Amino acid sequence: MLLRLAKKVLSLQPFPRNNHRVIFLYHHIKATQSNFYLPQCTTSENNFIEQINFIRKYFNILSLEELLAKTEDGKRYASIVFDDGFDSFKNVAFPVLKNYKIPATVFVNQAAIEKQQLWVSNILLNADNKNYLEQLWHKFMSEQINFDKFAKNPLNLMLTQANFNADPSFLYDSNLKFPLKIYLDEQEIIDLDKKGIQFENHSSDHLVLSLCNLDTQRKQIIENKLYLENLLAKTSQHFAIPFGKTEHFNQDTTQILQNNLYNYSNIPQIFDYQQNSIKNLIPRISLTEESIPELIFYLNRATIQSFFENKL
Ligand SMILES: [Zn+2]
């Protein structure tokens, strides 16, 4: 009861707070007339516009570079970023951002750009394709997990138990059917880059890096870096960890990123920008269909947490 009341109060209005810096993360933005909905990573167009308007009202929205360069000056800043390079960025998100002159960064995977598929969306969109699931099971699962068990929850088992050191080409299947074009292609990325959108590194195949050995991790990070740098003729400086939670990367990951001068970001439980104990690690908050009161609650929760950590 008390908790519910506290949540209600914390959802009314953002507390005034100095030096508040937040990175808001989106994935797929669904056009109002579209039926294409990916569970856990879709924001509907109307909600997106409402959230962006809220963020505009309470924050100065900066590019990732500008946000990271800001020293504490008593103002509130935010950056808007997108993971996975969904095609909807071009037609739904970009016009909104352009209208408000809001800078944005999109973290992309070479495989999604070139093959127009990633294993995560393949599983979500082809859950009843036994051939594809068998291919994944055969190449990426240990013998202890039988196929029936795998087929019941393939995404969860891939996320927690796959041997991602296997040949990544088996993650793809040119026979798979998709309802529409899912990812941005090279030409669209080049065009959007010219219009001021920043594209950055999200690894080649969106594997769970903590389930990869050092060599595979290095390949996943560096090959995607070189691919992007070649495509856009500029240096890649930011890396978003695929899936982004603590369990999805390890010391090998942070070592490779630091050796390659990357700023990198994850998705913690509490999503406030703060000087992290791990150098160059910048937290982000992932948004989908949150209402404005829910967004306010997240912000206030972060403020309270910072207060207890003496970081106000
Ligand atoms: Zn991602």
What this model shows, in words?
With 312 residues, this protein is an alpha/beta fold. It folds into 2 domains: 246 residues, Alpha-Beta Barrel (TIM Barrel); 60 residues, no CATH class. Helices cover 43% and strands 13% of the residues. Strands 1, 4, 5, 6, 7 and 11 form a 6-stranded parallel sheet that branches. A 3-stranded parallel sheet has the order 8-9-10, with no helix packed on it. Strands 2-3 form a two-stranded parallel sheet. Helix 11 packs parallel to helix 12. The site of zinc ion (ZN) has 5 residues, from loops. The site of zinc ion has 5 residues, from loops.
List the main descriptive attributes of the protein structure presented here.
three-stranded parallel β-sheet; 13% strand; 2 domains; binds zinc ion; six-stranded parallel β-sheet; 11 strands; globular; TIM Barrel; 13 helices; alpha/beta; 312 residues
**Helix share bin:** 40-55%
Oligomerization: single chain
Mind telling me the CATH superfamily name of the largest domain? Glycoside hydrolase/deacetylase
Strand content: 5-15%
CATH top level assignment of the largest domain: Alpha Beta
What structural class should be given to the helix and strand makeup? Answer: alpha/beta
Number of strands: 11
Characterize the main sheet: 6 strands, parallel
Distance between the termini: 28 Å
The CATH topology assignment of the largest domain is: TIM Barrel
